[in-house]
Design brief:
- Helices cover 27% and strands 18% of the residues.
- It is α+β, with helices and mostly antiparallel strands.
- The strands form 7 sheets. Strands 1, 2, 3, 4, 5, 6 and 21 form a 7-stranded mixed beta sheet that branches.
Length: 524
């Protein structure tokens, strides 16, 4: 079969949230860019993984790039322009369509897709941006310390395309391009002897990865029966009690991440005032005119459907497929348990009126999200690695490490979910931090940049870097850096290591609306 050849200035492999930011940045500076995506939706964790944005408390005022703010505002404006909000909701400057308590902008992933398409379409129409999906990278070509081409396979057509570019950005969920191009990287947990992080394990373990979660959306139709067919692995998950867990995995009692104490939350009631229904609710029908929606809609991304029982990254195809299928089975089993056996406050069991909303996820065959929520990727061996001790509040009572080569900011608690090794939650206070350019420069390869969670962080510090606004910032900087280097015939490491070039690049970032520092520091 013939291989189609495509040439461009910048090739972005993977269509995650950082990929969208990178593509917009490259195109804004007048360069040509190709973006490949494996699913039918660009946007990664915000869309095809169905996770409303995890953000810090100051996100409405500062601590994000201008283009990320444009995305957030675009989502709110979409609701105001096309949906029948109440007058009160329409006038609210900080509209939260789902009124979920985990995020200030809980919304339907289809709206995020629409807004991302709106943001990218002008560049597509102008010929600067070409989006290929569904396409998966299957091979990479290198010459010395440079990546020269990537083979992307059409998942529907079966046709292969060779993409050649001056610069490549890896924005895949798992850092697949790092592996295909044999770029030096880390997977799983580093040994404490290597990083000196207090919470790193004694021995390195590439299989020790955070849980993935296959999210799904559901609504509640009282008096109706929408019970799904019993999942094949239902009895396995219903009866399973993980070591260190307070009871069965499928129960109302889980673990409080900060203290590891038991925590009981029911669907509509909770001892801490935060029932699961409100956790990631993406449609609160009280925000809309009467009779617009028959029910709220909530996204289920709970401790009960975290899958940490085997890795899906860095393993052979058979093990990957087995764990991905088991993760989907766990989520379906949770839904079936909710519909049939979950204890109710009135003494009964089950909520058969819970209806799986597969349309919210793009119409997948099983009604679940198109892709699992990935919290941890392969990570670049970079010129600089951000460690726990650079950002963790308990280790730095006077403030975080200040990076002269800052290219952005972020803030989130160091939040690790249960891991394949059996290690449980790790939840540490964290300072608002800077993103150092050194964490984006490979130790060897010259023309590949990270576009998401795959920058130079560790298994521990990734817990703070993995969230939406940070991934967007990393991707946007990667795109701007590639365009900056193309304009001046430079390599990224020169920009970091030559003071005059670093100053010039940081000035470009400021002009593009990227904050390089925090106006004040309060630990989260």
């Amino acid at each position: 079969m013939d291989v189609e050849l495509l040439r461009t200035d910048v090739a972005i492999i993977g269509g995650g949230l950082g990929a969208c930011a990178a593509a917009l940045a490259v195109a804004r500076l007048g360069r040509r860019v190709i973006l490949t995506e494996e699913t039918h939706w660009i946007g990664g964790q915000l869309t095809n993984q169905a996770v409303p944005p995890d953000e810090h408390p100051w996100i409405e005022e500062f601590g994000a790039t201008a283009s990320y703010r444009a995305l957030r505002q675009g989502i709110r404006n979409y609701y105001r322009a096309y949906l029948p909000l109440t007058a009160e909701a329409r006038s609210c400057s900080t509209l939260n369509p789902g009124n979920g308590w985990v995020s200030r902008l809980c919304h339907d992933p289809r709206v995020a897709v629409a807004v991302l398409n709106e943001m990218t379409l002008p560049h597509q129409l102008g010929g600067r941006l070409f989006i290929m999906h569904p396409h998966r990278p299957i091979a990479a070509w290198t010459a010395g310390d440079r990546l020269t081409g990537v083979i992307a396979r059409g998942l529907q057509s079966g046709r292969d395309c060779l993409i050649e570019a001056a610069f490549f950005i890896d924005a895949t969920p798992h850092g697949e391009l790092l592996d295909l191009a044999r770029v030096e990287h880390v997977l799983g947990a580093e040994a404490q002897a290597e990083t000196e992080e207090p919470h790193a394990p004694e021995k390195a373990d590439p299989r020790d990865q955070q849980a993935i979660t296959v999210c799904f959306a559901m609504e509640q139709r009282p008096g109706e029966d929408h019970t799904i067919d019993k999942p094949r692995q239902y009895e396995l998950w219903r009866d399973y009690q993980p070591p260190g867990w307070p009871g069965s995995l499928l129960s109302w009692t889980t673990i409080r991440p900060e203290t590891h104490e038991p925590l009981t939350r029911h669907l509509f009631e909770a001892e801490d005032g935060h029932p699961w229904w409100h956790f990631r609710r993406i449609l609160d029908r009280t925000k809309f005119v009467e009779r617009f929606a028959a029910s709220d809609i909530t996204v289920v991304n709970w401790p009960q459907n975290d899958y940490w029982f085997g890795p899906v990254c860095g393993v052979d195809a058979l093990e990957e497929a087995r764990n991905l299928e088991s993760a989907r089975q766990l989520s379906l089993s949770l839904l079936y348990w909710l519909q049939t056996e979950a204890p109710r406050p009135d003494g009964g069991v089950g909520y058969p009126g819970l209806r799986l909303r597969g349309d919210v996820m793009g119409g997948t065959p099983d009604g679940l999200a198109q892709a699992p929520y990935v919290r941890e990727s392969r990570r670049l061996r970079a010129e600089f690695t951000v460690l726990e001790q650079h950002i963790a509040y308990p280790l730095r009572p006077s403030g975080p490490e200040i990076f002269p080569d800052s290219v952005g900011v972020g803030c989130y608690r160091i939040d690790l979910h249960p891991r394949v090794s059996g290690a449980g939650y790790l939840d540490l206070g964290c300072w608002p931090f800077q993103i150092p350019l050194g964490a984006m420069i490979p130790v060897r390869v010259e023309n590949l940049l990270p576009g998401g969670k795959n920058l130079g962080v560790t298994h521990i510090s990734n817990g703070a870097f993995r969230v939406h606004p940070v991934e967007w910032n990393v991707g946007e900087v990667a795109g701007l850096l590639a365009a900056f280097c193309l304009e001046r015939n430079l390599m990224p490491r020169q920009v970091r290591n030559v003071p005059a070039l670093l100053d010039e690049f940081q000035n470009l970032l400021r002009q593009q609306g990227i904050e390089l520092g925090w106006p004040s520091l309060t630990p989260l």
